[in-house]
Every structure is written in C-alpha cells, then in structure tokens.
Amino acid sequence: MAALFLAAVAGVKAQDQPAKKNKYSNIDLSSRANDHFMIQFGYINMGSVPDSIHSSGFSRFFNFYVMFDKPFKSNPHFSLGIGAGLGTDNYFFKNQYVDLKANASKLPFRSAVPGTDSANYKKFKLATLMVEVPLELRYVANPVQPDKGIKAALGLKFGYLLKGYTKGKNLVNKTGGSVYGSSYILKESDKNFLNSTRIVATGRIGMGNFSLSGSYQLTSILKSGAGPDIRPYTIGLTISGL
C-alpha cells in the first residue's frame, strides 16, 4: 500500500511540473525576411589547367536565385534555405579559339581559327547557362531581423546545363589587322563536350544584405574524356534580402 501511495504522489507531482519551454518559443518569425532573393556576381577562374589553355581577362559569373527559408524550431539562428535560379559563367581567352563544333572526341583549344594560318579573335569567350538548385545551411546573429546583423551560409548547388556557346568578336590576322571589320561577331552553340550536370560547394559570410561569397566546382566543366579536368572556383559578392 505504501508503495502505491508513493507512486500516486509522484504521478501527481509529475503532472504539476510545467512543460519546459523553448527559449525561442515566444519569437515571431512568421514575417521575417531572410534572403528569399539572392543576386551573385564576381570573378571565376578555371583553376588548374594545362599550359595549352590560355585564359585571360576578367572571367566572370552572374547568378540569380529565388529561395525558401525554413528556420529550425529548436534554434532559429539556424535555418535551411532551398530554391532555384539561373547561373551564367563567362570564360575569356587570349589568342585562342575554343572549337565547340569540332568533330572530335576531345574539345580543341586551337591557337588559330580553323581555315586560317594565324588569325584569331580579338575577344573570345566560352559561356554556359545553367538552371540551378541551391541548398544552404544558414546562420544569422539576429533571427528576428536577419538583415540587421552577421549572417553566414554553407551549401551545395546542383545544376543542369541549358546552353553552352562561344562568342568571338573582331577576327584579326597575325599583324593585328581586322579581317571582316571590328563589329564582326561569330557565335557557336553546342553542348557536345560540356558536362550536362554540375555540383558546386558554396559559402558566404557578411553583414545585412551584403556578403562575400565563394564556390568550388566539384565536377568538371567537360565530360569525362572530352578534355582536361577543369573545376572552377569563384570569388564574388552576394546581394540578398526580402
């Protein structure tokens, strides 16, 4: 009987104990703005490439994403961001013709335009357009007003190639003379040599709506066997908000 009485008393005490509250339970996050839109731009480098590839100038990227942000109930300083958008990369070359239309097993990086002795374009670039799905683990110092404090994020981007093309402007001969005039432009589009998917590791840190960002591509630009293993990295600026 004594044992039953003690058990009953313990049960009553357990019921009287108030439920332990999460210290963030009174914070209203229903209307907070936390990087639902992101614009990124900056410098992109092809990384370690053979001497036969002559990259030059300010190669650059531009990305735009629409994001959803899901704060953790246990700690709203952290959240999961996921979204979709477009990413463009532009690689510039000096005295080199990237022959996307070549009938070959490997992408040729030629020292002259086919059919000429030494003619090349004064400006030449290889560009890609990707549809991307970014995934981020986010941290904000101010969970109620993320745009008022320090923020950081680590994540991955998964991309699918929509278009790959080259653009050459102003074909010049070996003496520097224009062959067809300074306004002449040649565009060629082909995805035969380019990897159709990519995975990129990302990171950013900043204050308010502005962050320094960086990325490293975990997959090669080119398909396996289509050329050197090119894995670019980027350094740039992220503008985010809403």
Report what the structure shows.
The protein is mostly beta strands and 242 residues long. It has one domain. The protein contains one helix and eleven strands, in the order H-E-E-E-E-E-E-E-E-E-E-E. The chain has one helix at 2-16; strands spanning 37-45, 60-71, 78-93, 97-98, 109-110, 120-140, 150-172, 185-189, 197-207, 210-217, 233-241. An eight-stranded antiparallel beta barrel has the order 1-2-3-6-7-9-10-11. A two-stranded antiparallel sheet has the order 4-5. Strand 2 and strand 3 form a beta hairpin.
Q: Report mean pLDDT, rounded to a whole number.
A: 91
Overall number of structural domains = 1
The biggest sheet amounts to: 8 strands, antiparallel, barrel
The helical percent reads: under 10%
The topology string of helices and strands comes to HEEEEEEEEEEE
Total helix count?
1
Strand content: over 45%
Uncertain runs are none
Structural class: mainly beta
Strand order of the largest sheet: 1-2-3-6-7-9-10-11
End-to-end gap: 64 Å
Number of strands: 11
Q: What is the C-alpha radius of gyration, as a whole number of Å?
A: 27 Å
Shape: elongated
Task: Give a short summary of the structure.
The protein is mainly beta. The protein has one helix at residues 2-16; strands at residues 37-45, 60-71, 78-93, 97-98, 109-110, 120-140, 150-172, 185-189, 197-207, 210-217, 233-241. It is elongated and about 80 Å long.
